[in-house]
Amino acid sequence: MKIFLDTADLAEIRRASDAGLIDGVTTNPSLLAKAGNDRAPAELFREICETVDGPVSAEVVAVDSDGMIAEGRKLAAIHEHIVVKLPLTEAGLVACRTLTAEEIQTNVTLCFSTAQALLAAKAGATWVSPFVGRLDDIGHDGLEIVAEIRQVYDNYGFETEILAASLRHPRHVQEAMLVGADVATLPPSVLYPLLHHPLTDRGLDQFLKDWKAAGHAL
Ligand code: E4P
User: Fold this and answer.
1) How far is 61 from 72, CA to CA, in rounded Å?
2) SS3 of 179, please?
3) 74-119: per-residue pLDDT in tens?
4) Which domains, from first to last, does the chain contain?
5) 3-state DSSP assignment of residue 21
6) Ligand 1: which of 4, 22, 28, 169 to mutate, judged by most atoms within 8 Å of the beta carbon?
């Protein structure tokens, strides 16, 4: 399973990319606002693309299909890593078909049901992003939707990849792996805790103590 970083914060992207922990980046307009960057969005996207060796999702903000297509073309022209992120609306799916026909990669976002994911795949989406945490927030089981999408895509041989999004804690990530998501996108606050286990810390402490006590040197 690939891991994408869900942020527009360049310093975080640099850190995770330098550590070899991520395969790509996802952003959305809220994440851009949160990053509080004074660069123009196109400039920021270019810098992100130059920092990470993989797909970088950049979202359209038009709500009609012609506007989305025009924005999608502009975004795709910024860098070859750009993936155009489109909302799962009728207009978004129309734009998805057109951009796919132009060989522009797409990520259909704000997916909250298996039926929506089927429609995104039929529109030729490269990725579909089911929002796990936001479904959990309203009392649904977000990961169950991811598992259902996996089954439907396998049943019908769709090549659209499942990008599990809105993951709020390491358990979400673990379950996304188990149900067969192709990618998990996570904020830094979920990525780094994946590295930690108390037994790793305890084991390392003990090794270092024993090494010191034995008086060895390398
Ligand atoms: C994914 O592409 C979205 O940007 C993101 O995962 C949304 O997460 P949130 O529900 O925590 O805002």
Assistant:
1) 10
2) coil
3) 999 999 999 999 999 999 999 999 999 999 999 999 999 999 999 9
4) 2-214 (3.20.20.70)
5) coil
6) 28
